[in-house]
UniProtKB/TrEMBL annotation:
It comes from Crepidotus variabilis. This is Snf7 family. Keywords: Endosome, Membrane, Protein transport, Transport. Residues 184-207 have a biased composition (Basic and acidic residues). Residues 164-207 are annotated as: Disordered. Coiled coil: none annotated.
């Protein structure tokens, strides 16, 4: 029983499409048969013409022409069948899409029922009450604390903020410091007063 339940259900539309596809396949087989007859009649016409029997060659070509007219008719019928199959299959797809849209619309309606105006207003009121309660608790705690305790709380908050900023700054990329090149010291210029040789020369000139 479980195996029978798992089998897909064949609908009337499936049967109709299957019948149309079978007819299409039969027409294609018939076209192949007509094409083979045309080729054979053409070959017969060539043989009779080479044998000098023009009348029989003409009859073979007439039969070939008739088969060609049948082939044109089957082409039209085949095109109609293929269009009909495509139309039915596309209609089934549209039906499936419409069914999906209907289900989605039903789901939206259920959601809208749950999200009515009264529920939204009640939720907003509860949120506002929660915020007011939190504010009252904060005010009550602030009023029960001494000035020293309040200063300590503010100081602790500032320390936590500074620590958070320090951690954030530590995560940023730090470039390594590059040492500056050392500049060689130049010898000081000796002045005449500090240079003993020049001092002696200056004294000699003066004498």
């Amino acid at each position: 029983m479980g195996g029978n339940q798992s089998l897909p259900k064949i609908t009337a539309q499936d049967k109709a499409i299957l019948d149309l596809k079978l007819q299409r396949d039969q027409l294609r087989q018939y076209q192949k048969k007509i094409q083979a007859i045309q080729d054979r009649e053409q070959a017969i016409a060539k043989v009779h013409l080479e044998a000098g029997n023009k009348e029989r060659a003409l009859v073979a070509l007439r039969r070939r022409k008739y088969q060609q007219s049948l082939l044109v008719k089957t082409d039209g019928q085949l095109e109609n069948l293929e269009q009909l199959v495509s139309t039915i299959e596309f209609s089934l797809v549209e039906l499936s899409v419409l069914h999906g849209l209907k289900q989605g619309n039903d789901v939206l309606k259920e959601i809208h029922k749950e999200m009515n105006i009264e529920s939204v207003e009640k939720l907003l009121e509860e949120t506002a009450e929660a915020r007011e309660y939190q504010r009252e608790i904060g005010d009550m705690l602030a009023n029960n604390l001494s000035l020293d305790d309040e200063d300590a709380v503010q100081k602790e908050l500032e320390e936590m903020q500074a620590e958070a900023l320090g951690d954030k700054a530590g995560e940023e990329l730090q470039l390594p410091s590059v040492p500056l090149p050392s500049v060689p010291k130049e010898d000081p210029v000796k002045s005449p007063e500090t240079d003993p040789v020049k001092s002696k020369e200056r004294v000699a000139v003066a004498a």
